[in-house]
Amino acid sequence: MKELFLNKLSIVNYRNLTGTDFDLNNNINCFVGNNGVGKTNALDAIHFLAMGKSYTNSISSQNINHEASFSMIEGIFDKDGKSLQIQCHLERDGKKTIKRNRKAYKKIADHVGLIPVVVISPTDIDLISEGSIVRRKFLDRTISQSDKKYLNNLVTYHRILQQRNALLKHFSSTNSFDKDTLSTYDEKLVQFGNPIHEARKKFIKTFHPLFHNRYQFISGNHEPVTVSYESKLDEHSFKTLLEESLQKDRMLQYTSVGPHKDDLRFRINDFPIKKFGSQGQQKTFLIALKLAQFDIIRNQMNVLPILLLDDIFDKLDDSRVMQIINLVNDDSFGQLFVTDTNKERTENMIKETAQSYSIFNL
Asked: What is the pLDDT of residues 319-360, one digit of tens each?
């Protein structure tokens, strides 16, 4: 198993963190302090270095400190004994540059997967409470970290989708219609959409048992839970769906069928967890989802992803917290970052692992 560590983190003007440097521990790092001091921002900066984007704010320019015109994040990583310097530079006009060992990427997508990372945070509740787009992003980001072909198909598919939608709007505004031109886009959507659908189905077959095992361990083997992938492409060919939805799409002026409309279903005791899961059950479900995400990335990439735990100990009872601590206290996990408002609580839990650690007061 390849090793991956972030040895040094430097942050300039990233939200409220300005001119901040951290020399990090290879095992456990804890950022502690009151709410609003920048604990989550520190973890988000690590996520940005790994994925080229924030996990809390999709608009890059909004991650710049209000008084500044730019933001810079730099990380010195050790990946399987080789040093990697990653720099992310953001400008107020939205320009984003990512460099690997001082050489800029031509496409940000080429960086995805180099530094696998999994984050568990309070915003994960959106996976349960919000619409299908949030769950598709979880699915896509997980698969994309270990499958470049999937990521390339996804990027191409969404570009063609935007073009088809623009054409539908053009037809409506000009009161015209060109079926041959639309068919060209349909063929391309099918060409790239079908592999996306197949990859997602294959992924869920591998993912579900990992998720189920994680949930049962954290919960104490109490309630049955399931994650299923739902797509209209399971029932009809993508080409047929596009043909049948043509009139609807012309009226709506956007493409109403395809992998971009698929969803994940989360159930507990065979009922939707959104409606029938307690707060503790929902949080356990989400943590199990993310730990399974960690498992599948680790297994497919043969590297231990960096794990970011952002304020996850709220709303979990002591027994479930200790289950999580026990989970990360073995060789199947690598470098760990934790945030908490309570330094004493964090330190007492971390001491249970008997691993080396560093605590940073913010």
From this structure: 666 667 777 777 788 899 999 888 888 888 888 877 889 999
Backbone angles phi, psi at 214, to 5 degrees: -65, -45
Question: Among all chains, which residue has been given the structure tokens 């909004």?
Answer: 62
Please state, as a whole number, how many other Cβ atoms lie within 10 Å of the Cβ of residue 276. Answer: 13
DSSP-derived secondary structure letter, 335: -
Question: In sequence order, what DSSP letters do the residues of 77-96 get, joined into one string?
Answer: EEETTEEEEEEEEEETTS-E
Kind and range of the H or E run holding 243: helix 238-244
Q: 230: which 2 tokens?
A: 């739902």
- H or E segment and range at residue 104: strand 103-104
Cα–Cα distance measured from residue 59 to residue 38, given in angstroms and rounded to the nearest whole number: 18
Tell me the HSE value of 182 on the side-chain side, using a 13 A CA sphere: 22
Which domains, and CATH codes, for the chain?
1-116+305-362 (3.40.50.300), 128-302 (1.20.1050.90)
pTM above 0.85, yes or no: yes
